Amino acid sequence: MRLPQGTVISVSAAPVIASMVVGGPLAAAIVAAIGTTDLREFRGQVRWYGTLFNHSATLVAVVIGGAVFELARTSPGTTAGPWAEAVSFLGLLLASGVFYLLNGALAVFAVSGQSGASVRTVWSQDLVPTFIPLLGLIPLGWLMAEIFALPNGVGWWATPLFVVPLFTTRESYQRYVETRELFVQTITALSQAVDARDVNTRNHSKRVSDIAEAMCRVMRLPESEIEKIKWAGLLHDVGKIGIRDSILLKEGPLDKEERFLMNQHPTIGAEIVEPAKQLAAEAPLIRTHHEWFNGSGYPDGVEALDIPLGARILGVADAYEAMTSPRPYRKVALSHEIAIGELVKFSGIQFDPEIVPILLGLDREILDRKTEAPGKLATMLHAGAPPSPAAEAAPAAEAAPEGGDPASRPMLASDDVS
Questions:
Q1: 94, 113, 230, 394: most buried by Cβ count inside 10 Å?
Q2: How far apart are CA 195 and CA 322, in angstroms?
């Protein structure tokens, strides 16, 4: 099974562990070398050096793990007596742990080098969630070895029955991977649907999420916290589902009532995601991502460190992305230099003064908006109906006042509601 970052795992550890118990490191190495052969290798889907690395990594890990097991069960005082079996099993737990960690570490370094993802990311997203379930294969492997050792040849035909629990274990891993992928795809689809209401905000939520993630990695936050902030970034504007187009897409300034309604979108967003147990931790970040460091924000007026760290990070990322993108009330995006100047100007007022420098230090490759083709969904939503004959005969709209453009919302970060 392929995990989110690209690591491939299987249930072959159980027969490898059983071979370790029955025949020691050499037998385990033979079984591992043959039993971990992948059909992708015969189909040419894995380069020769990838195949060589995969088998070599498994062999190194299983030989070292097998040596640990042999050392544990042959140590003085452990070869006889009532506790011999218990000590042997504990030794197997230790040896299997060594096998898992070595094999996993080698795989993580390989995937990291190939994909460009950090070792920490691959380890936390691929290895950590599957480590405990994989430990469940240890007693299964030990039981396979015990059954195989039954007299009168019983073990030869009884051992293949373990195909059933191994298959069900494999299926449970597969369901885990599929469920996680579906969850991420659903969040992404929802964020894209929100952004598609305005042709200018296509991929806004994805960019906010990416910028926030880059800031989190500079800050070396725990991977679980980074993931929470990423998902909150994708969904930070989901509450705009509840804001009507006449307000959301208005080109002129918002009046008092319209501003009040617009300021409800963080609350609406938090209420949308909060019932979903998997997103309960993201709801507070969505609710507070428009709070100001000095307490002048909305919807609750919390300030400084009372604002969750993730929300303070998202607030900076969101403001930068909004300023450097066109909006209905500002047709031309601000330059990087102007946007940075606004972040610095409002540091300590709207933004956490310790977080603004983190964004300022990011590579321009992360911050710069790439040229994109118009999204099909946004184009269809805003294509409009063909003009009626009455509309074609109507007089042209009044021109802008002399000496200036039609009224629009201010360009400052503090006034940018997107």
A1: 230
A2: 12
Q: Are residues 257 and 210 in the same domain?
A: yes
Going residue by residue through the chain (418 aa), what tens digit of pLDDT does each one get? 777 777 777 778 888 888 888 888 888 888 888 877 777 777 777 777 777 888 888 888 888 988 888 887 777 655 555 566 777 788 888 888 888 888 888 888 888 887 777 788 887 777 777 777 777 888 888 888 888 888 877 777 887 888 888 888 888 778 877 887 888 888 888 888 877 776 666 788 889 999 999 999 999 898 889 989 999 999 988 888 887 877 777 777 888 888 888 888 899 989 988 888 888 889 999 999 999 999 988 898 898 889 999 999 999 999 998 888 877 777 777 888 999 999 999 999 999 999 999 999 998 888 887 665 555 545 544 555 444 444 333 333 333 333 333 333 444 454 444 4
What's 81's DSSP letter?
Answer: S
Q: How many domains does the chain have?
A: 2
- Claim to verify: residue 293 and residue 356 sit in the same structural domain: yes
How far is the C-alpha of 121 from the C-alpha of 201, rounded, in Å? 29
- For residue 392, tell me if it sits in a domain: no
Helices (H), 196-255: 204-218, 223-235, 245-248
Domain boundary among 181, 216, 245: 181
| Same structural domain, 278 and 370 | yes
Supply 12's token pair. 């072959």
This prediction has a pTM of 0.71
Least Cα distance to 65 among 13, 9, 123, 20 occurs for 20
Structural domain containing residue 150: 13-181
111, 240: one domain: no
CA 284/CA 413 separation, integer angstroms: 22
Whichever domain contains 282, its CATH number is: 1.10.3210.10
Neighbours of 11 (CB within 10 A): 22
